[in-house]
Write a structure and sequence with these properties.
single chain; alpha+beta; five-stranded mixed sheet; 23 helices; 10 strands; 67% helix; 8% strand
Length: 673
C-alpha cells in the first residue's frame, strides 16, 4: 500500500505540469506571410498568443528575434514583451532596406519545452505597382483562358446531352429553369446560354414565355463556377494542369472522351492557377491604406461598388472572373465580405450586357429576351439591397456551419442564394414579366422585314455543340423554304397565280443564297474552335447539304421556271394523260424532298434509303413518259408538235430538279452511315 501511495505522489507533479503553446496570429486567414515595402513598417504588426493548457495566458514573457534579414536596419520593437489579458504579445516590425524574405522568431520566455514560432515577412521592391498590375492582368488572362478551356471540354463531353435537354423543353416555366440551369452549368457561361436563347426565340423555335424560365435557370447554373472557384486550391493547380495536359496529349488519340476530360482538368487547373497569381499579385495592396480604405468603403457605400463591378464585368464579359477577383481580394484580408457581396451583385448586372450586345442583330423577341435577363438581375439587386446587412450576416452564419472562417465560400454562397431566391421570387410572375417586356418593346407593324438567318449569328460562336445544333436548324429552315417552292410549281400553269408563283421561286433563290452564305461564314468561324472528329465531320456534312439546297434552288429558277413559264399557253393543249403525268411527277419530286428533310431532321437512315428508291422509281417513270410522248411526236401535226416539244422540255427540267433533290438524299445517306 505504501508503495502505491509513493507511486501516485511521484505522478502528481507530472500531472499538474502546465502545457504552454505559442500561436501565430500575424497572418490573415489563409495567408502564409506578411507583406510590406522595403524600408517600411508592417502596419498591422506581429501578433503572437500564448496559451496555457488551452486557455489564454496573461503576463507571460515573449521574446522576438530577427533570424534572417536580406537588408540592414530591420528591427522588431519591442524585442520582448509580456502578454495582455487575452494572451497576446504584439510587436512592430520595421523592414530592412532591401527586398526579400525576412524571418522573425518568437520565443516563450526561456522555456525549451515550448516550440518557437516563425513569422515570415515579404519585402517588396520599389515599383511594385507595375509588377502588381502585370501579375493581376496575367492572372486574369490565365483565369479566362482556363474558363474557356474547361468550358470547351465540358461542351464536347456534354454536347449531345445538351441538345437532348434543349429538345425536351416544355411550356412549363419550372422545366425551363431546370433546362437553363443544366445548360449553363455545362457550358459555364450564362451569357452564352442567353445569346443562344435569343437566337431560338428570334427563330420562333422557342416562345418568349419558355425563354423566361431558361433565363432564370441560367443565372443559377452560373453559380457552379463560383462555387468551384471558392475551393481555392491554388497549391494543387500545377498538378491539375500537368495531369490534364499530359492526359489529353498522351491518351487523347485513343479516346475523344479522355481527350476532352483532360482538357476539362487542364482548364480548371488554369482557373485555380490564375486565381493564385491574382491573389499573390494583390497581396501588397494590404500595405496600402488608401486602397484598403477604398475597398472597405464599398461596404459602406455599396452603390460605388455596384457601379464599378457592373462596368468591369461588362468589359471582360465574365461574371465568374469579376467574382473571382473579389474572392482573391477577400482571401488577402483586403476586401470585407459585405463589399465582396456587393461586387457579386454588380457582376450579375454586368454580365447581362453580353446578351444586350448579342440581341442587336436579332428581332424584337430577341431584344425582349436580353431585357428579361437584365430586369431579372437588376430588379433582384434592388430587392436585396435594403437587406444587405442581414443577408451578409446570414451568409456568414451559414458558411461558418459548413466551412468556418472561409470567406471565399461565403461569397460563393451569397452568389448562389441571391440567384436561387431571385428565381423563386420571380417564377410565379412569368406572365407579368412577358407582358412587361412586350409593353416596353412594342411590335411595329410598319417595320420592314429583312430576310436573314434566324438560328445563327455569324461571328458569335460560343459553343461548338450548340452552334452545330443551330446550324442544323437553319439548314432545316432552308429546306422547308425550298420545299414550299417545289409545291408551288404547279401554280405556274394557273393564269391567276403564275406571277405570284414566279416571284416566289425567284424570292426563294435569293433567300437560299442569303442562308447559304451565312451558314458558310458561320461554319468558317466555328472551324476556328477546337472541334472533335465527329463535330468536324458534322460541320462538313452541313456545308455539303447547304450547297445541295442552293443548287436545287438555282435549278428551280434557271432550269424549271423558264420551261414551265414558256409552256403556260400550251398547257391547255396537253391531253389528260400528259397533265396527269406532270402532276404525278411534281407530286413525287415534292414527296422525295419531304422525305429527305424528314430523314435529315430525324436522323432516320431507313427514310433516307426510302427516298433513294423513290428517286429511282421517279427516274424510270419520267423516262417512260418521255419515250411514249416522243413516239407521239413523230406522227404529230405542226400544232401538236409544239405542245409535245414543250411537254418534253418540262420533263427535262423536272428531271434536273429530281436529280438535285436526289443529291440531297445522297448527302444525307452518306453522312448518316
Amino acid at each position: 500500500m505504501k508503495l502505491l501511495l509513493w507511486f501516485l505522489a511521484a505522478l502528481l507533479p507530472l500531472a499538474a505540469a502546465d502545457v504552454y503553446k505559442l500561436e501565430n496570429h500575424s497572418y490573415p486567414l489563409g495567408q502564409k506571410t506578411l507583406t510590406g515595402l522595403e524600408s517600411g513598417t508592417i502596419a498591422q504588426g506581429i501578433a503572437v498568443r500564448v496559451v496555457r493548457n488551452g486557455q489564454p495566458a496573461a503576463n507571460e514573457l515573449v521574446r522576438f528575434h530577427l533570424s534572417h534579414a536580406p537588408g540592414t536596419n530591420a528591427a522588431v520593437e519591442p524585442g520582448e514583451i509580456r502578454t495582455d489579458k487575452d494572451g497576446f504579445a504584439r510587436a512592430t516590425f520595421r523592414i530592412g532596406d532591401k527586398p526579400g524574405d525576412y524571418i522573425v522568431q518568437a520565443f516563450h520566455n526561456a522555456r525549451l519545452d515550448t516550440a518557437p514560432l516563425e513569422i515570415r515577412v515579404k519585402a517588396l521592391r520599389g515599383g511594385w505597382l507595375v509588377f502588381l498590375i502585370l501579375g493581376l492582368l496575367g492572372g486574369l488572362a490565365i483565369f479566362l483562358f482556363g474558363m474557356d478551356a474547361s468550358s470547351e471540354g465540358l461542351q464536347k463531353v456534354a454536347g449531345d446531352k445538351m441538345r437532348v435537354i434543349l429538345g425536351k423543353l416544355t411550356n412549363k416555366p419550372v422545366m425551363g429553369v431546370v433546362v437553363g440551369t443544366l445548360t449553363t452549368a455545362a457550358i459555364q457561361s450564362s451569357s452564352a446560354t442567353t445569346v443562344m436563347v435569343i437566337g431560338f426565340v428570334s427563330s420562333t423555335l422557342m416562345t418568349l414565355k419558355q425563354a423566361i424560365g431558361v433565363i432564370y435557370g441560367c443565372n443559377i447554373g452560373t453559380t457552379l463556377t463560383v462555387q468551384l472557384i471558392a475551393f481555392n486550391i491554388a497549391d494543387y493547380a500545377p498538378m491539375l494542369i500537368a495531369v490534364g495536359f499530359f492526359t489529353s496529349l498522351i491518351f487523347g488519340s485513343k479516346s475523344q472522351g479522355i481527350k476532352f476530360g483532360g482538357q476539362i482538368v487542364f482548364g480548371f487547373g488554369l482557373i485555380f492557377f490564375g486565381m493564385g497569381l491574382m491573389s499573390d499579385a494583390m497581396n501588397p495592396l494590404r500595405s496600402v491604406p488608401a486602397f484598403t480604405n477604398l475597398l472597405t468603403s464599398i461596404g459602406e457605400k455599396p452603390i460605388l461598388g455596384l457601379v464599378v463591378a457592373t462596368v468591369f464585368t461588362a468589359i471582360i464579359q465574365s461574371s465568374g472572373a469579376a467574382i473571382g477577383i473579389s474572392i482573391a481580394l477577400a482571401t488577402q484580408g483586403i476586401l470585407p465580405l459585405k463589399a465582396a457581396i456587393v461586387i457579386a451583385f454588380g457582376a450579375n448586372i454586368g454580365t447581362t450586357m453580353t446578351a444586350v450586345l448579342g440581341s442587336i442583330g436579332s428581332g424584337r423577341d430577341g431584344k425582349r429576351v436580353a431585357l428579361i435577363h437584365f430586369l431579372f438581375n437588376f430588379i433582384g439587386v434592388l430587392l436585396f439591397f435594403p437587406f444587405l446587412d442581414p443577408f451578409t450576416a446570414l451568409m456568414k452564419k451559414i458558411t461558418d456551419v459548413m466551412d468556418p472562417g472561409n470567406i471565399s465560400r461565403a461569397i460563393a454562397n451569397a452568389h448562389m442564394f441571391f440567384n436561387a431566391i431571385n428565381t423563386i421570387v420571380f417564377l410565379p410572375f412569368v406572365g407579368l414579366m412577358e407582358k412587361s417586356v412586350r409593353f416596353l418593346i412594342k411590335d411595329s407593324a410598319t417595320e420592314a422585314a429583312v430576310f436573314k438567318p434566324q438560328f445563327i449569328q455569324p461571328g458569335d460562336i460560343r459553343s461548338s455543340s450548340l452552334s452545330l445544333e443551330q446550324t442544323r436548324r437553319e439548314i432545316m429552315r432552308a429546306g422547308q423554304i425550298v420545299f414550299g417552292t417545289v409545291k408551288d410549281l404547279a401554280n405556274l400553269w394557273n393564269p391567276q397565280s403564275v406571277v405570284a408563283a414566279e416571284n416566289h421561286i425567284e424570292t426563294t433563290n435569293r433567300q437560299i443564297a442569303v442562308l447559304s452564305d451565312a451558314i458558310k461564314l458561320y461554319l468558317r468561324d466555328l472551324a476556328k474552335l477546337t472541334l472533335s472528329n465527329s463535330e468536324s465531320r458534322e460541320a462538313t456534312y452541313y456545308l455539303h447539304l447547304t450547297e445541295d439546297l442552293r443548287q436545287l434552288a438555282n435549278s428551280l429558277q434557271l432550269e424549271v421556271l423558264p420551261v414551265m413559264k414558256a409552256s403556260g399557253e400550251k398547257y391547255s393543249s396537253f391531253n389528260e394523260s400528259q397533265r396527269k403525268d406532270l402532276e404525278f411527277l411534281l407530286a413525287k419530286i415534292s414527296e422525295l424532298l419531304e422525305k429527305n428533310l424528314q430523314a435529315f431532321e430525324q436522323k432516320n437512315i431507313p427514310l433516307a434509303e426510302e427516298s433513294g428508291l423513290l428517286y429511282k422509281k421517279l427516274k424510270f417513270m419520267s423516262k417512260k413518259v418521255q419515250s411514249q410522248n416522243l413516239e407521239s411526236l413523230l406522227a404529230a401535226e405542226a400544232q401538236d408538235s409544239a405542245a409535245l416539244n414543250a411537254f418534253v422540255d418540262i420533263l427535262d427540267g423536272l428531271r434536273v430538279a429530281a436529280s438535285d433533290v436526289h443529291q440531297v438524299s445522297k448527302t444525307i445517306l452518306e453522312n448518316q452511315n
